[in-house]
Amino acid sequence: MSTISIFCGAIINPQSLTEYTVLPRALLAVDPTGTIAWIEREVDSCDVQKKINQRLSELKASFGEDVHVFVTELQDGEFILPGLVDTHTHAPQVPNMGSGQQYELLDWLENVTFPMESRFRDAEFAKMVYPDVVRRFIAFGTTTCCYYGTLHLESTKVLADTILKLGQRALVGKCNMDRNCPDYYREPSAGDSLKSTKELIAYIRSLNSDLIHPVLTPRFAISCTSDLLRGLGDMARSDETLAIQTHIAENKGEIAFTKDLFNECKSYADVYDSNDLLCERTILAHAVHLDDHELDLVKKTGAGISHCPTSNFNLRSGMAHIGEMLDRGIKVNGTFLENVDDGELTSLLQVGLGSDVSGGFSPSIVTAIQHASMCSKMVALQIAGRPSLSAKSSRFAGKQLPIATLLYLATLGGASLCCMENKIGSFTPGKSFDALIVSVRPETGNPAIWSMPGEFSGARNQTEEEAKKRLDALLEQFLFGGDDRNILKVFVQGKCIGGTLLRGSLKN
Ligand SMILES: [Zn+2]
Fold this sequence. Notes:
alpha/beta; 2 domains; 19 strands; globular; binds zinc ion
């Protein structure tokens, strides 16, 4: 028998860079395929059953009379949020979280990262490690994740198998590296690297899942010969469904080395562009030090940026000027306008958030939100008093990123960066139900979230406006103090794949 899930309670729904909708008491129905069937925005508590009965006939008409209806009623202090999107992370580096913070990028790769990643030459090691890795990202509410594997084909197949089994939505790539890495961790040639990349793509597609897709993953320009970049660019050009992920302009030493290696190219961004690796399916991690021409080029090609503030602080790479990037890319219905309503603001220069484990020390996108906020405040402080960079005429540059923008980057912005904005990132009928049930109630046991004794017991007598204001406050508490303890359930395509309640039920 197929099941229809109906959720009754508070919903927070990102709309644009500057707005999200707060629905203190809504109904949301998920059909048996995991797709959102309908949303009732404001429902009085005494009308809930009546509304459900009214709308149920539509679902029965589509899915048969014998569907089973399962209603979940949220408590005060709980709300539904779209699942978080991690647009850049490294699965094999998770065992290294919290190690090597004394290094900057290139030394950190040599001393910390490459030794760990090389252990994945043994697929049995991957089978032991990857399930725990993927569970950690799910526990922190990441429903869609862009993973780098290692350069090993078999272990990256294991990563894809693991994600499929655990039910997360993901892009999975095998690193391409045929130079400037240690002998023990390098592919023998560009030809070998391209061959195993093609094999991985074929393997992931043979899994026949809507949730998991292959992504081309040249580690960064330094680790790839021109032949390898050219070969990957040819693959990208000939296959319009293939995503691309790589690093760009993360660290000044890395940039100098790249310019030295590719002195025929005009810039770091041009290294990728001249090899046909910049397009609307490209996710560029970091972009801390891109110059004006490079940002224009990125925007022109439709590529987007994964902002990884935890890693950028931790490896002392620098602070990406995300506000400026958003200002550059703002569009409304495909055209650039100056005085548009906030509710219509989307960005052509797509930006999402990345945990970048283990340059970043946490698999949590909530942590990335906190650091993105701090980063924007630090950038604002730095440019204050420099009239040429005045924040007055900008929407985002030189200002702290507001809650709505942070939430957008972590959900709908990340979804757009992955070309999945029509499927995930917010709640609309027809989209997949990728969602979290969040709780800020005291029984979650998170000492970083305050509530007054008795705050969540008993009925509340408040106007709709008061209820919305209170939900805004609870959302902010979660974004700045929340962790995995506050994530009760994690859904991907309507299926519960994680959260504290699932972990609890597995224990019993
Ligand atoms: Zn990275």
